[in-house]
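Hi there,

I know you've been waiting on this one. I reran it after we fixed the sequence typo, so this is the corrected version. Both the input and the resulting structure follow.
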Amino acid sequence: MKKLTATNAKDRFGELLNTAQREPVTIEKKGQPVAVVLSLEEYQRLEVIENAWWEAQAQKARKKGGWAGPQKSEKFLKDLMDAKG
């Protein structure tokens, strides 16, 4: 995976976009990775995988009778959003 500093990514944005079509590109700020730029095709592929995983989890819960219910689901989503926030 190619790596660019944030400054290089800004200065060479066209190159960043072209490279991201072939492979993900890590963007670093102060020597630490802060973002990954990837092609739309790769992003969509990852979404399909994630959706399939969540569907499998839902199927398992249905088989076990383990519905979380509205309150537990709302708390889970709030906690998830707060963690990303």
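Quick highlight: The radius of gyration is 18 Å.

Best,
R. S.
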